[in-house]
Amino acid sequence: MASNVNPTVRRRRLGMELRKLREDKGMTAEQVAERLLVSQSKISRLENGRRSISQRDVRDLCDVYEVEDRRLIDSLMQMAKDSRQQGWWHAFGDIPYSVYIGLETDAASLRTYEPLVIPGLLQTTEYAQALVRGAWPETAPADVDKRVQVRMHRQKRLSETENNNPDLGPLRLWAVIDEAALRRHVGDAQLMIRQLEYLIEQSEQPHVTVQVMPFELGAHPGVNGQYAILEFPDASDSTVVYIEGVTSDLYLEKANDVQKYSVMYEHLRAQALGVDQTREFILRIIAQYADKGE
Fold first, then answer.
1. Which of 120, 133, 139, 165 is nearest to 10 (CA)?
2. pTM (two decimals)
3. The pLDDT value given to residue 97
4. What is the per-residue pLDDT for 121?
5. Is 71 in contact with 128 (CB distance < 8 Å)?
6. What is the full DSSP assignment across the chain?
7. pLDDT given for residue 162 in this prediction
8. What is the structure's pLDDT at 1?
9. Cα dihedral sign for 157, 160, 163, 165?
10. Matching Pfam families, A to Z (predicted)?
């Protein structure tokens, strides 16, 4: 069972079911927490899939909601059991953004805007190593290697189906990248040339679209920073907006929030260079790096 389960997605689906039961009962999270003698934040985290949930938690919540359907209870209990299995990323130890990896693993499409660096799914190994060392200067070499290995493993979603879901094809990736990410020296000029050549190579895949936002376009909807929008093949899984932080990440799932970021991304795509223009632009920057490296 463990090899066929994505615990992150299971927790999200289970949380949505539990929230629906609470709302159908007409109870607030505060009222449920008071009945179970737990904090309101625990109930909220269980419902949004940010906290591991036990079968005992499910049993107690079903008691509070007076659920009598034995098949429903058994189904929820199984989901709780599945959600405590380990995903592939757990083999690498404590990964700070493991929730995001779990979502990305089962996502059908990913739209991302990167203002400062090449997106992780499009990085070469040597670029990733130099980037992690520079971004986290106090990180031990072994931890640098671990982060890079995880990043390279994540890239498998661009070239193969997700083993947990044979019906899920390669991830559909749309990346808008600011010119700053192309010009920022991560490593030496030769490393950047190889990275940008790899970026062009990846952009030629039919399910990968890369656009550049050049400096000359001035202010645009992405100036507020990096974000990603993940969509899933199952209609029951809500779209998620992911915003990366230093010590904690933000996951937005409310329809209004997702709509705002989606509209903002449409403006980004419309203002950025087209696909062919982007490749020509990157080739010009590669030539500039080559001149510097001579």
1. 165
2. 0.79
3. 79
4. 97
5. no
6. -GGG--HHHHHHHHHHHHHHHHHHHT--HHHHHHHHTS-HHHHHHHHTT-S---HHHHHHHHHHTT---HHHHHHHHHHHHHHTS--GGGGG---TTHHHHHHHHH-SEEEEEESSS--GGG--HHHHHHHHHHH-TT--HHHHHHHHHHHHHHGGGGTS-BTTBTT--S-EEEEEEEHHHHHS-SS-HHHHHHHHHHHHHHHTSTTEEEEEE-GGG-S-TTTT--EEEEE-SSTTS--EEEE--SS--EEE--HHHHHHHHHHHHHHHHHSPPHHHHHHHHHHHHHHHHHHH-
7. 56
8. 30
9. positive
10. DUF5753, HTH_31
Strand partners, 250: 243
Residue 3 reports pLDDT greater than 50: no
Does residue 2 carry a pLDDT above 60?
no
